[in-house]
Amino acid sequence: MNPRVASRHSREGLTDAEPAGTEETWSEKDLRAYQVIGKSLLERIRSGEFRSSGKLPTERDLAEIYGVGRAVIRDALVMLEVKGAVQSRQGSGIYIMPQAYAHGVNVEASDGFSTSDLAVAQLNPQHLIDAHQWLDCQIARITATRHSEDDMASMEKALQMLVNTSADEEYEPRNHQFHRQIAQATHNYEFVFMSEQAWQRRQQSPALRNLSVLLYGDRFRSVVFADHQRTLDFLHRGDGDGAFYSMWHHYENLKTALTLSESLPAIQG
């Protein structure tokens, strides 16, 4: 399934999308674009540009201003909301919070989300996978009935990027991005926030870092991609129950892989 790629204009330091054949470079730019925009918005907030209204422009207006798709703007707004800089109120707009003016707010972390407040102690990988399974399955069910065409295009593109992964170190961030797009398509930032917390916990677990290496290997790689494609198909059809059970089946496969990965030497870092 080929993702739909929108052309980008050269605004705010963003360049046009690369032509076919240079997907790896373009994909890396796309994954970082929301951070560039998030930083730009924070600087504009602090300059007082939006002080009179107390709100940011709409997603549509921001997409036109920055010359990107609305999905990229949504990523940037989610990042700012998790940081406490803005708050989206359905039907009312995107409100700027007092914390946005505090210079301690930083949007330059590698994934846009801070992990300093998540304790590593007593991290049980089996418990974490169980909890993440229930969360992701419910998110998939909700997304099936709430996603827009733009959301669907973003999910398709994220899966295509994952399928085209050519190096071990690229697998985990691209897998995370695919799941992140599904969460964002709920249009409920609380689900996005909870999903990000679960992924941060996974990244802190040596056992689950081992799991990522195993999933990228020959034995499970095709299984993971087939699971994701099946879930995407149910989402496209608007079948919430199908999306739920497809995601559930995916996590059952992860549990099988986790059992095998526990016999591998732990990956530190």
TrEMBL record:
Residue segments, region Disordered: 1-25
Keyword line: DNA-binding, Plasmid, Transcription, Transcription regulation
Membrane-spanning residues: none
Pfam families, per the entry: FCD, GntR
SUPFAM superfamilies to which the protein is assigned, alphabetical: GntR ligand-binding domain-like, Winged helix' DNA-binding domain
Protein name: Regulatory protein GntR HTH
Gene Ontology molecular functions: DNA binding; DNA-binding transcription factor activity
